[in-house]
Structures are given as C-alpha cells and as structure tokens.
Design goal:
Length: about 200
Amino acid sequence: MIYKHMRSNTIMVIALTLGIAAGSPAQAQIGIFKKEKSAEDTIYHLFLDTVTIEARNLKNYNFNRYEYVVRKVYPLADTATALFYEVNSETATMKRRESKKYRKKMEKELKENFEDRLKNMSRTEGLVLIKIIERNTGMSLYDLLKDVKSGSTAWWWNNLGKMYGYDLKRGYSPSDNPMLEIIIQEYETKKGIQPRKPLQ
C-alpha cells in the first residue's frame, strides 16, 4: 500500500521541478491512480501520459518588460519629438532674441506635459523614453538639450547622466540594444507610425 497517500498533483510538482532545474526540455509523466482489490491487499495502478516541460527563458521576461515599457512611453516620446521638430522649424528663420523667447515658451509646454509623468517613471522607462526620442529625431539628447536650452544645460545634464551610467552624447544606435529596436519597429508597424526625417 505504498502508493496509498500519493496524489497526482505531487507528480506534477516533481516533474516541474525537474524541468526547471535542468534548464532544458525534460520528459515527465502525469496521470491518475486506479485501484484493484485482491484477496490479500489493495493494489494501486498509476496510468501516465507523457508531457514535455521546458524551463522558461529569462530573455522572454526582458522582451515582455521592454514591450510593456515601449507601449507606455512611446506616446510621450512621440509628443516630445513633435515639439522638438516644431522648435527646429519655427526658429529656423527667427532672430536670436525671438528664438530664445520661443524656446522658453516651448520649454514651459514641455514641463507642463511631461514633468509629473517623468517623476513617476522608473529608470528603465526613462532610458527607453530617451532612446526613442534620440532614435526618432536622429540626434543625441545632449545635442537636443543644447539646441533647445544651452550648452551649459546640456553639459550639466550629461554629467548627471553619467552618474547613472548613461552618456547623453552617445545617441541612439540599434546595435546597442537590438531587442529594443525590434520592439519599437513592431509597435510602429502596429500603430501605423511613419518615421520622420532626422533633424540633422
């Protein structure tokens, strides 16, 4: 009667543990118990079906995580990109004083639209937001800040970024994170978003 207290869910737990520990597809069996009575004792029979169990690839988590972040921050990045294009277009023929006044106005608009939401972003969300803006403008965030604000402002933010391991002068390169580029392309295709001509 050694099988009397076993349960099919116990077999499932053991099989899953073996599959995960191996780190590769593992064969396991699960099923149900049946019993037969004889003159001497009760005999239990276990009828099993073969199943394949695979350990989850951690890369799937990263992909899903980036996919979620891109869906969340892309609309913000797109709005910011549109404002950068507007600044670039409107100030092209302006005199320096007029341009400065206009840029201050746009800076205020950027703060009103983004400040609260940026404060609540995680580090990953902030970095992806920057990458999408750099990708869609064709400019590094350092050059964008220098253009919209000033060289000293860009320098200050770049030094702050370096404290968190990010160089604002580097700009966007698909080879730095191919997975992120794939996810962005898939998002743009799904939403019917057409790429803009780079600012420079």
